[in-house]
Amino acid sequence: MSGRAQLMWDDAVTGYDFGSSHPMDPVRLALTMGLVRAYGLDSAVDVVAAKPAGDSTLRLVHREDYVAAVRAASADPRAADQNYGLGTMDDPAFAGMHEASALIAGQSVAAAEAVWRGATAHAVNFAGGLHHAMPGGASGFCIYNDPALAIARLLELGAERVAYVDVDVHHGDGVQAAFWEDPRVLTVSLHEHPRTLFPQTGWPEETGAGAGEGAAVNVALPAGTGDAGWLRAFHAVVPELMADFRPQVLVTQHGADTHFEDPLAHLAVSLDAQRSVMESCHELAHEYVEGGRWVALGGGGYAVVDVVPRSWTHLVGVAAHAPVDPESVIPASWRDEVYARTRQLGPARMTDGRTPSWQSWEGGYDPADRLDQAVLATRRAAFPLRGLLA
Description:
Blueprint: E1 6-8, H1 27-38, E2 46-48, H2 55-58, H3 64-75, H4 97-117, E3 122-125, H5 146-157, E4 162-166, H6 173-178, E5 185-192, E6 216-221, H7 227-245, E7 249-253, H8 271-288, E8 294-297, H9 308-319, H10 332-342, H11 370-382
Parallel strand pairs: 1-2, 1-3, 3-8, 4-5, 4-7, 5-6, 7-8
């Protein structure tokens, strides 16, 4: 297996553009790649531009009529069919939508293929992580569900156990739905509670169905959860599940919208805690996955200058075994790029100045604490279905 990580990148992914008034500004992708280059991380990884996902690949998850509808809206945005979630406020139709969406999906699928076949142990597609798209419709800024497509491709290649861990502030509903009855895929999502945030799913009682009962795990975090609670919840749930499931591939989604500056959600997590979870996912891959097979994806994140580029540059550094020093001063060349593109001033360092810490679940819990109540609800709903103690 190659000792170098792969970074999936094609400048054309910035064509995934819902328009100037939409919060999902593709400048976040361009600025992330610019920061990766400013730190020289592009020389620590193999930068790979994969082909767009073809129709046969898209149909691993998405219905043929939906793909046809995306193609039609892509050719003529005025013809977008809102019955498929296209041409809506969340998912406006734009020229070239199919091509840009298929390209992002193709990067995630190629990342999965590379780690499965041993070309690399780790692969990153920070343009991916579009986890809300459903088999028959767009949802939540997501046209094609690249995490689900990557997992479906792994199953097609012969994988029997794939773990998906999603730490975006929004529930990973589309990925969960795609594998709701499939015991080969363990989906774990930590997200803001559905009472206070889209898509209003991801309750702890959502645990899968049929043969897949117990294969979905959801941690619904109270609004306002900060570093200590977020990290406590992650470590109270994810490592034990990985130790039990022993996945052949770990796929993780690292939406940066848990951050306290994100304008669309209500958690209060720092960049430093996000980096800590990235490091933990990396460690879990090496500890519990044969060959350390790890596919790391981006996701949401709407503080497009201050947060997203720094968060995902840390992700690339962690996957490349070349972590970026949080205290490092960000190169002036990148801050100049930020100003040229956005007329905003970029952040000066790769840290929010926090030192993340948490209390281990093994030390006991407080039944009156809202965070502990959330963790306990998850463990009680899902763990016994897997033969684990709540």
